[in-house]
Amino acid sequence: MVKINDFVLRFANVNGTGSASANSLFAKAIFRMGIPMAPKNIFPSNIQGLPTWYEVRVSEKGYMGRREGIDLMVCVNPQSMLQDVKSVKTGGFFMYDSTKPIHHEYLRDDINYLGIPLMAMCSDNYTDPRQRQLFKNIIYVGALAQLLHIEFGVIEQLLKEQFAGKEKLIAPNLKAINLGMEYAAQNFVQDLGFRCERRNLIGDKILVTGNSSCGLGAVYAGATVCAWYPITPSTSVAEAFEEYAEELRVDEATGENNFAIVQAEDELAAIGMVIGANWNGARAFTATSGPGVSLMQEFLGLAYFAEVPAVLVDVQRTGPSTGMPTRTQQSDIFISAYASHGDTKQVCLFPSTPKECFEMTADAFDLAEVLQTPVILLTDLDLGMNDHISEPYEWKEDRKFKRGKVLTADQLDSMEKFGRYLDVDGDGIPYRTYPGTHPNKGAFFTRGTSRDEYATYTEDGNIYKLNMDRLTTKWNTAKEMVPAPEFYQKQNQSSMGLIFFGTSNHSSEEAMDLFEQNGLMFDALRIKAFPFAPSISDFISSHDKIFVIEQNRDAQMRSLLILELEVNPSKLVPILNYDGMPITADHIIKHVTPHLAAVHN
Amino acid sequence: MTYIRPAFHHPDLPLNEIGFTRKEYEGALSTLCAGCGHDSISAGIIQACYDLNIQPHHVAKLSGIGCSSKTPAYFLGNSHGFNSVHGRMPSVATGAYLANRDMIYFGVSGDGDTASIGMGQFVHAIRRNLNMVYIVMNNGCYGLTKGQDSATADEGSKSKSGSVNPFQAIDLASLALELGATYVAQSFSGDKRQLIPLIKAAVAHKGFAFINVISPCVTFNNNVGSTKSYDYVREHIEATGTVDFVPIMSEIKTDYNEGDHQQVTMHDGSILNLNKLDHSWDPLDRISAANAMLRSREADEILTGLIYVNAEQENLHEILGTSKKPLNKMTEKELLPSNDQLQKINAGLR
Fold first, then answer.
1. Buried b (16+ CB within 10 A) or exposed e, B157-189
2. In contact, B22 and B53? CB cutoff 8 Å
3. What is the CATH number of domain A208-390?
4. Does A586 have pLDDT greater than 90?
5. Of residues A298, B63, A303, the one with CA closest to residue A285
6. Are B95 and A280 in contact (CB < 8 Å)?
7. With a CB-CB cutoff of 8 Å, which residues 438-467 of chain A face chain B?
8. What is the pLDDT of residues A490-527, one digit of tens each?
9. A323: left (phi > 0), else alpha (psi -120 to 50), else beta?
10. Which DSSP state fits A386?
11. What is chain B's mean pLDDT, rounded?
């Protein structure tokens, strides 16, 4: 029986050969046919020459996590061919450039070969050397379209959109598509056992990266200052902010920018600028990855203690140290949650989808200003740099920026004495003033040294302690303000639970679904923020065993739950993935299952 | 604290043109050592701001860590201050300046804070031509950790404990000049007459104004053999001339001998009158200024006065094309795109 809309296809390319646009053309065509699909770019820390892969999972059921087992491998990279041949699952297909005969060591009995003379076809049909290189990629897209029933009209439309303004490029691209389709029609079996079929499963969803969504979120949040230092995989957050700001934030009358972007000399300077700008009343943010967060530690402590808002987008990658800079991980939880020396606690947000990247970036600015503290948005390379099918962006028309407790000149005039660190309202959040507010009221000295409620330097231990305790009060206030966890059931129905966060969501949901098909029910909770809301505590205490699914070696979120909620550690079973690839449902099931046997015995 | 400053204000204290007494530009009582050069510099800032009729709340004062970085608490008590982390004042100042281009920014730093831990940020603040006054209170040592040599300590200079510094000094004024600072001055904390006009002109300058002020550390680096002691500096100072700062709209009254003075018109229209004693270089010419600095170092002289000024270079906001209205004054009206625009973006992603 032919499987409809249920397969994994992987492209093996050489970095820098124009394969990226061909591969995304393939993915987008499936998206346009209304079929759920999830692309993953698996790329090297390199600009040109090293192997790069692009994987597309097509799933009628809407499973958007990765899946093990490749049904069809398109290999146009001799460097990685041996590895690529091995990665095809039994019964699967291997498409390759057959201009030269394939070496016998690449031959397996249990898979099928689809040889296309890509190089020869390009040489015959194109004269320009660059085109000969580029159109190899388009020809295999054509062959795939034929074999997988991808609609020609959809591809044609996408090419028209892609080359709007450069129309003369459309015809040679369409020619390459046709060359591929014809070759496949004439030379291959037409039934691979899997194919696409138009559906209406996408609705009004969008296809976008998390980084782009964070950049747009910052524009809608009213961020005016962005200071950043280039680092993979976060660079495209700042780039997206710049692109959207240039589109949406240039004053029409004057041509002036209602934003300022500075590429800093390093991450220390980037966060320093963010703190300086926020202190002076502008909404400012930076984007970085693990190594940058390490460098920003001292400043994050200053912002925590001096109570200056700051927003930091951490697009996590595989650590420690330089680690695998182009692979994903969720391993900056400790360094973020307790960033800097001394007693510190930092507000963290954990988005799972591009829409949440957009919303939570905007929320981060509100929280940072309302709580007068740094807010760290922890996304990761998978979410940040890969396209994801997401609910569309939404912005409530009447939503205003929450600027927090900021005193105006009039308010200063009507009060007896301004105390910058005075807990007037009992929520631990004091009132602040921007520089330049009032000629002789409201000025104070911001410092990382201890100070009294009126911002005057002090080394009085009791006053220091009072201030630290107020910061704890503020932390408790934050618990009620941060995004609440998401529950996947109306009411608890199992003694076993799953806890996950960030990009483990898709595979966790898929695993839950597959378990349920086998009669095993789990309750599930997705953490969206630190500090932990009280409902997380309740969830843990109302289940006997909880699997904490995360993408790092040290079970950092599990440890944080144990530390902060004083949970019995034996109750929380770590399910970990840390090979740099996005976690799969297979992996979760494989590692949860042995514990289930123990429960049943 | 052993000192208590009387709250009493003399009713007849003179007011400046905007109605403030000099006292209203003062800060908390200094906790630095008696006789510290830094306190004289603070007094110079106070006097300059009083004379220039600056609204105290239109100033923000920022610093890093160290004795020098404590001083913003001791001047301009009606201005917001930010004592940040060691060596990182330039980045905090950059952010503050990005948020509000209309304020006056005083960055105060020391030789450890600028020439060692903060060298990277110092260099890049110059490169971006922030509109700020950057004062280094340079005493050649780490005062707050009890007198270790800093990177500006001169080679061969003897510390209080008798050890001789074997390393070459970093000359911050020459470095600033080399990096393209648009206003470079050097002075001595004991020379108020020269320092105050230099500070005033630095405020009027619409770019990065750097003033390296030799400021002896009375406790750890004022001994015989030190090249940052009061005695040594007084003996080796080579005053290049006096500077008069004539604010915008003021009448120029001073008379100068033809050939001895040079006028520099600042961006805001105020005038800098240089009464030159030394004719060997032109402060409007970077190369001649750099040569003069090198020559004075070779001769073990400390060249003071206005070394270089370029009033034309674009500052950071001009380079970035930022709105004239300060970014921190903007609301949803200027900053929030419409929902229609968001729907268009959604449509483009389908």
1. bbbbeeeebeeebbbbbbbbbebbbbbbbbbbb
2. no
3. 3.40.50.970
4. yes
5. A303
6. yes
7. 438-440, 443-449, 456-457
8. 999 999 999 999 999 999 999 999 999 999 999 999 99
9. left
10. S
11. 90
Domain ranges of chain B: 22-324
Which pLDDT tens digit goes with each residue over A304-347? 999 999 999 999 999 999 999 999 999 999 999 999 999 999 99
- Is A222's CB within 8 Å of B332's CB? yes
Quick: pLDDT tens for A16-40. Answer: 888 999 999 999 999 999 999 999 9
Quick check: do A3-195 and A486-600 share a fold? no
Calculated CA dihedral for residues B192, B198, B200, B201, nearest 10 degrees: 160
> What CATH number is given for A3-195 in this structure?
3.40.920.10
Reference A207, options A39, A5, A7, A54; nearest CA is: A39
Domain extents in chain A: 3-195, 208-390, 409-481, 486-600
* Alpha-carbon span B217 to B223, nearest angstrom: 9
Backbone angles phi, psi at B328, to 5 degrees: -75, -5
Q: CB contacts < 8 Å between A and B, how many? A: 224
Listing from the earlier edge strand, what are the strands of the sheet with A486-487? A486-487, A523-527, A496-501, A545-550, A572-576
Q: What is the pTM of this model?
A: 0.96
Name the nearest CA neighbour of B331 among A289, A286, A281, A58. Answer: A281
Contact of A460 with A414, CB cutoff 8 Å: no
Question: Cα distance from B186 to chain A (closest Cα, Å)?
Answer: 26
pLDDT (tens digit per residue) in B234-275:
888 877 766 777 776 554 444 445 456 677 787 777 887 776
List CB contacts (< 8 A) between A225 and chain B. 95, 98-99, 327
The class that CATH gives domain B22-324 is: alpha beta
What tokens were used for A377? 């948005």
- Cβ distance of A272 and B332 shorter than 8 Å: no
Indicate the DSSP class of residue A305.
H
A429 in contact with B, Cβ within 8 Å: no
User: Percent of chain B having pLDDT more than 90?
Assistant: 73
* Interchain CB distance below 8 Å, B78 and A440: yes
At the top level of CATH, the class of A486-600 is alpha beta
pLDDT per residue as tens digits for the range B192-208: 999 999 999 999 999 99
